[in-house]
């Protein structure tokens, strides 16, 4: 299997909607060009930030194909493919055309709270079903269960050719540091949280799958690159410029915050699909104020 390099800044693409809640493919095309022209390293398509639970299977198929056609091989593509029905997910992976993608990002099964052994067996089945390398995604704040360092390391060691990375969004520095310290040499640890990307890179993470990168691809990818090069002083300056935004973007949930930011910048309509709604007016005004100062 070809080695996939997910070092640097990947962006978890949003799905722009029109006022009638249909997908705004023109805005999506502009956003893709904006990302690539401003130096992002890879794109994550149909992740949490894309409001994937609110898209129909046909819409997901159209987005997957549209992004691949627009990107046309200029940057690597990672496709979000997760679920809490292991057999159903494996069948979906087997029946999806993944020829334009380099890896899949698969979240820990949510809601039904599997044990660590259940999480291990789930990913073992996904690894066997997927023709592409797999990136684990640990985000206990959304799934209701934490994948421990031990489970992550066990998967990394048992499936070295297939399970190539983890997107860690537990916020647990001790756990993430433990993974970095004990992982196989080629296994990549990727930050799943913009706000702690800088400190995680200093510990040995290889980059981030970013939300804020939708709006600030040039600046945030520069921060990541400087940190990876060991220029921590200049990376820290950029990190500190964004600290207020980091919290504002998530105060009313994701992707409401980043969609509000992109709307304020003139990129998209400020539209989400229920059960998600736009940010409160007070949050919108705070984001606009920070944006003016930036």
Keywords for this entry:
single chain, 294 residues, alpha/beta, TIM Barrel, 8-stranded parallel beta barrel, 13 helices, 8 strands, globular
3D architecture notes:
- The structure is a single chain.
- The chain is built from 13 helices and 8 strands.
- It has 294 residues and is α/β, with parallel strands linked by helices.
- It has one domain: TIM Barrel (Alpha-Beta Barrel), CATH 3.20.20.70.
- Helix 1 runs parallel beside helix 2 and helix 12 crosses helix 13.
- The mean pLDDT is 97.
What is the average of the pLDDT values? 97
| Sheet of most strands | 8 strands, parallel, barrel
Number of strands: 8
Biggest sheet strand order reads 1-2-3-4-5-6-7-8
Can you tell me the CATH topology? TIM Barrel
Let me know the CATH homologous superfamily. Answer: Aldolase class I
Helix content bin: 40-55%
- The CATH architecture classification is Alpha-Beta Barrel
State the order of secondary-structure elements, H for helix, E for strand: EHEHEHEHEHHEHEHEHHHHH
The structural domain count equals 1
Low-confidence stretches: none
Q: Choose one word for the global shape.
A: globular
Q: What's the total helix number?
A: 13
Instruction: Give the C-alpha Rg.
Output: 18 Å
């Amino acid at each position: 299997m070809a080695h996939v390099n997910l070092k640097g800044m990947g962006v978890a693409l949003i799905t722009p909607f029109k006022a009638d809640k249909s997908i705004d493919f023109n805005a999506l095309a502009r956003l893709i060009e904006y990302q690539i022209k401003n130096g992002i390293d890879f794109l994550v398509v149909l992740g949490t930030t894309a409001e994937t639970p609110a898209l129909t299977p046909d819409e997901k198929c159209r987005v997957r194909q549209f992004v691949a056609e627009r990107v046309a091989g200029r940057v690597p593509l990672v496709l979000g493919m997760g679920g809490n029905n292991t057999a159903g997910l494996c069948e979906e992976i087997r029946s999806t055309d993944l020829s334009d993608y380099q890896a899949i990002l698969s979240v820990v099964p949510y809601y039904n709270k599997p044990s660590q052994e259940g999480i291990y067996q789930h990913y073992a089945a996904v690894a066997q079903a997927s023709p592409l390398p797999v990136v684990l995604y640990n985000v206990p704040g959304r799934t209701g269960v934490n994948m421990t360092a031990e489970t992550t390391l066990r998967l990394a060691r048992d499936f070295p050719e297939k399970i190539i990375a983890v997107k860690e969004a537990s916020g647990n520095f001790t756990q993430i540091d433990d993974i970095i310290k004990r992982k196989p040499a080629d296994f990549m640890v990727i930050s799943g949280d913009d706000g702690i990307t800088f400190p995680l890179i200093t510990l040995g993470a290889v980059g981030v799958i970013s939300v804020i990168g939708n709006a600030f691809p040039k600046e945030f990818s520069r921060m990541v690159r400087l940190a990876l090069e060991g220029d921590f002083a200049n990376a820290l300056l950029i990190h500190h410029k964004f600290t207020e935004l980091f919290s504002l973007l998530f105060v009313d949930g994701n992707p409401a915050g980043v969609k509000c930011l992109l709307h304020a910048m003139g990129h998209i309509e400020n539209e989400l699909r229920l059960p998600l709604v736009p940010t409160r007016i007070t949050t919108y005004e705070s984001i606009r104020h920070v944006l003016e100062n930036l």
